[in-house]
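Friendly challenge for the regulars: who can give me the structure tokens for this chain first? No prize, just bragging rights.
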Amino acid sequence: AAAEELGWDAAIVGPGPGILGSETRYGHGGMAALDAANAAVGLGLPVIVSPRMSATDPRPRHVGLSHHTRSVLELLLRPVAVPVPVDLDSLWPEAADPPPVGAIGRHPLIPREVDLDAYAATGLPTRTMGRDLGEDRLFFAAPLAAGAALGGAIGPR
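First reply, four minutes later:
Bragging rights claimed.
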């Protein structure tokens, strides 16, 4: 009802940091992103999943594409857009599986330009989970790509 009343063109969701979990496949707060995405799908809205990615998280399940994002994408009712930075290869950690190309499963990747320097200059937070933007550029670049896609780049509903 809110989406219709407010004239939303799309919904953006994503599992973020600082959520508690059981260190299991589905036992984490990122599953709230799944609920929100499926609700938006039910309303007929285009859905963007902002992927949680990291180049330097000390936990292997969070390096590259986080298991939180993989779980959400695996269980979604239909394919959704997954924006990524156009320079994903240069941001991707060597310790992770190769970066996704073209799609993550049935979900198409939408490459978008990001400007991390401009973001840093905004005064918005540049630190997450003990790491700053310079230490984990991928962590910040992924949601910036999703924001760029939300700016109309995924098309009208």
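DSSP finds six helices and nine strands in the chain. The first strand starts at residue 11 and ends at 13. Your move, everyone else.
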